[in-house]
Each structure stands twice: as C-alpha cells, then as structure tokens.
Amino acid sequence: MNDLVSRGRNRIEWIRSRMPLLAQARRAFADSRPFEGRRIGMSLHLEPKTAVLLETLASGGAEIVATGNHGSTQDDVVAFLRDRGMTVFGSRDDTIDQHAENIAGVLDARPDILLDNGADLAAGVVAKGEQSTIIGGTEETTSGGVRLRGELTGSIPFPILVINDSILKAIGENRHAVGQSVVESFMRITNLMVPGRRFVVAGYGWCGRGVAQYLRALGGKVAVAEVDELKAFEAALDGYRVDTMANLAGWGEVFITATGHPDVLGPEIFPLLRQGAILANCGHFPWEIDVPALSSSASGITVLDDAIERFEFADGRHIILLAHGRMMNLAGREPKGNSLESMDLGFLLQSLSLERIATSAHELPAGAQPIPDDINREIARRMLAAMGAER
Ligand code: NAI
C-alpha cells in the first residue's frame, strides 16, 4: 500500500476510535440507508475528522464527491479517501484558482445534496445559473451562514440547514474547541509562553469568548476589541480589558482575530503596533488581517518557519504574521484543529441534518435556516450520555 494512504489510514484509525457519536450513527445508517442513491457534494476541510464524517455518510448509502477548503487539505487524508473509492479533488498546495476548479469539479458531478463550509458550493450553484437538481444541503460555519443570508439571499432554490446556528455547535465547538485549539496552535507554532503575555482578541462572539477564556486560563493577560456594545459589555463583566483596537494596538503583544469580518487589522493599526507584535487569525476567511496591505507597506518579508513570517519596515520595526492570516488552528506543522469530541458532536449534527435533508427536504422552505430543534436536543442527550453526565 502506498505510504500516503497508510499514513492517512493510521491517523484516521485513532480519530475514528474517539468519535463514539459518529460510530453510533454509522451503525444506525447502515440499517436505515437514508442516502441510498444520493450523491453528496462536499467542500470542507479535508482532515482526519472529516474523513470519519464521510465514512459515516457512505455507510448510509451516499456516493461522495468532495474537495477541501483552500489551504487546509491534508494529502494523506485525500489519498485514504480516494483509496476508499470516493471522488476527492484537491491537495495541500492548491492555489486559489485550483481551489475554484475543485469546487467546479464537485458541482460538475451533479450532487443531489451539498455539504458546504463557507458557502463556496452554494455560491457556485448560483453562479452556474442552471436549473439545479439539488434537493438541499447543510452549511457548516458562521461565515457561510452570513453569505447565504447576505449576498446569496433569495437565490438558493433549496433548503440549507446552517449547522452553525445550532447552540450546541456554538458552545461545543466555536467556544470551547476553538478556544482550546487556538491556544494549542499559538504554542505549537511559536513555541512561546502564554502566562504573563498580553493578548488582544478581536471579536467577543462564540469563538472570541473561547479564545479569551483559554488564554486567560493559562495565565495570559487578555484584552478584547469588540464593535457590538452588548458583547463588549459582556466581555467587560467577564473581567477583560475592553477597548478599541487603536487603543490596544500599542499594548498587545499578540493579536488574534475572531470576527468573521474583513480588515479588522489594517493599515491604520499597523503603524501603532509595538516592535515584534504577532498577528494571527482564527476566523474562517483570511481577510481579517489585511495581508496585502501589510505586504505592500513592508520593505522586506522573511519566511522564518512553516507558519511564521516576518514583515520588516523601513523604520526598523518588524511584525510577525502567523499562518499567512489563514485559520491558525489548521496551520503549521501537524495541525490538529478542533478537539475530537467537539467534532464528533459537530459532525453528528452534520450527519443528522443531512439525513433530514435526504428524507424531508420537500417539507422545508428554501434558503438558509437553523437546524430543527429536535436534532439539537437528541444530540445533547447522546453527548451527555457519552460523557457519562447525568441531568
Ligand atoms: P460570532 O458572530 O459569534 O462573533 C463574531 C463577533 O465579532 C461578533 O460579536 C461581532 O460583533 C464581532 N466583530 C465584527 N466585526 C468586528 C471588528 N471589526 N472588530 C471587533 N469585533 C468585531 O461568530 P463566531 O461564531 O465567533 O465565528 C467567528 C469566525 O470564526 C467566523 O469566521 C467563523 O466562520 C469562524 N470559525 C472558525 C473556526 C475555527 O476552527 N477556526 C470554527 C468555527 C467558526
């Protein structure tokens, strides 16, 4: 067996062994076969946990055509999935143009159901403008939900269940898992100390709350920049320093964006940063830090390590950028992403939502919508049981 396939197989075996909720779903799907005769088109990070999700859908009869999100594809996972007979496009080094071709490849395979992350597939369907045979789909993340309800509103002719609207995902993944994995990634990529270091977290939504919480738990000094007055109020009562980014620019040593919005750190902030300030992002799109503006104002750029770049300026200062402004918790060497348990929960939400689309899409209205509450409650019960927690 080829080395890449066997490396993928072994890594996925460990992950699969710690995802009991999906194991239970695989057994149920093997009996009920909700996806029999259906082709599921997917665009989601191609990493080991996603492979276990795809196996779960395949056990329910689905044919899989998949690609990753730009920049996070793991080649051994792709090799393993291809070896299992799935059609998978993409590789770690894909350019943004290649990524667009991969998305087109998934849509050209005429899927019946979409599993989307960031609304790339949904936007592709609208851009194609053809009569769609898609019966419905799911959207994984905040930023995709924003696109579906913004630029794509009214143009999607089938139901899309937005997994991110689930309070379970918000608590289990965006808050607690992103919080843990961002701190793990900062330590893994930089090898720097957290205790006593000054961090500025941009955005006090679900992800920002978790990042701030886990940085502080390890002894970091944390400040929050938040544009929404209610969230800023919550951050202040949670005990964080709350201020504008301009006021925090000279204080922070590390800046982590978690907003889902563009240009949170841009040319008006860069001159205010202290020497050696570190910038990183955990939002879905790499637009929260204005990397093009940072590059054009720098007199030199040095790649110091896999996910560490130094931007040098004519006045002698430098700024460090992690992961080129992409999601830091899927970057660097051996990225792990969010914890296994949180993704077991998140991917059970995916699996049961896709099952609902496969069996009842005709009963749902077109466009983006939250997942039905009975799915949330069923999964909360299963998760509590898996954790041995009583209620
Ligand atoms: P959210 O909507 O709960 O929170 C975003 C917060 O950012 C809001 O409170 C908003 O007021 C604030 N904000 C917007 N513009 C701002 C600005 N210029 N300065 C300061 N604050 C600003 O969203 P959530 O769930 O926290 O997601 C944030 C991002 O993280 C999204 O892009 C989402 O797709 C992504 N995400 C990343 C994951 C990962 O593993 N890295 C996992 C889950 C979500």
Q: List SSEs in N-to-C order.
A: HHEHEHEHEHEHEHEHEHEHEEHEEEHEH
Which residues sit in consecutive blocks of at least 5 with pLDDT less than 50?
Answer: none
Largest sheet: spatial strand order: 9-8-7-10-11-14-13-12
Class of secondary structure makeup = alpha/beta
What does this structure look like?
The chain has 14 helices and 15 strands. The protein is α/β, with parallel strands linked by helices and 391 residues long. The protein has 2 domains: 2-169 and 339-387, Rossmann fold; 172-330, Rossmann fold (3-Layer(aba) Sandwich), CATH 3.40.50.720. It has an 8-stranded mixed β-sheet, with helices on one face. Strand 4 (113-116), helix 6 and strand 5 form a beta-alpha-beta unit. It has helices spanning 3-17, 20-32, 48-59, 75-83, 96-108, 120-128, 142-149, 167-190, 206-217, 229-237, 245-248, 291-297, 340-360, 373-387; strands spanning 39-43, 63-67, 87-89, 113-116, 136-139, 159-162, 198-202, 221-225, 241-242, 254-257, 278-281, 300-305, 308-312, 318-322, 367-370. The mean pLDDT is 95. The termini are far apart. The longest helix has 24 residues, at 167-190. It is 44% helix and 17% strand. Bound molecules: 1,4-dihydronicotinamide adenine dinucleotide.
